[in-house]
Here is the input.
Amino acid sequence: MKKDIKNMKVAVLGGGPGSEREVSLASAAAVVEALRGEVAGVELVDVSGAGFDLPVDTDVAFNVIHGTYGEDGELQAELESQGIIYTGARELSSRLAFDKVESKKRFVERGVATPAGCTLTAQSERPADVSYPCVLKPPSEGSSVGVHIVESAEQWDAALADAAQYGDTVLFEQYIKGKELTVGVVGDEVLPVIHIEPRSGFYDMKNKYPWLLNDGGTDYHCPADLPAEVTQQVQELAWQAHCSLGVEVYSRVDLLLDEDNQPYVLELNTIPGMTESSLLPKAAKEANYSFSSLCLKIIEISVIIRESV
Here is the structure.
């Protein structure tokens, strides 16, 4: 690298205009604290959308804006146009990973196992061959916002209407009963598998962030208690998903493991949660990365990739 990380000034970008704003600000605050004393300077920048200003002499922007604007390629395009080095996936891979419809198409093209699905609109008739339960969700939202597990025909209309309020299309997907898993990828390293066990229902907003909504809760098992060969299969599938979307630097891949121990990729997150209790840091800790060293590793890989272009 042209400049040692310890001599860099880092702007941590948090907030954003989307539904995950408060979670993003929590991630940003945690990253600022982790980098304090590890770099020459670190400052949190609350971004509400395009046209934000970075501190003078910023060497790298550490992006932890989840969802809209931060994870969909818009922020990446703006930083690219200004010649600013930033962490994480670049514009094209960010856009692809953020759109669950397009990323699912890529998974299918590349032979990455994923639940069967198709797109609908708010005006679509219910498919004649639908079986219950099934899943309806917005294709471009994170943190399970607008996701519904539809148990019966009576629930269909309300679930479709709610999912449709987040965009023009809705992803209709096969429901797979089984364990919810997630796997982090940092550089070329696949991290230990985490088993996500909600205390009730599925891994929705309240179970992900009980501190935010004062409701719900989830137990996390890392490493997941799985047979060695299943663990390997899950990690290999996560790596295939990461590579199939061309994602740079790091990601977190969410999967389901059915009752026959067959894993399926649900989606890939290019800006996963980054508090110390978030899933990627949990897995990294199991792989002997402190939270500070994980943040520094993300900066290091990002800078190397940018300088090689």
The radius of gyration is 19 Å. Residues 117-174 form a domain with the Dna Ligase; domain 1 fold (CATH 3.30.1490.20).
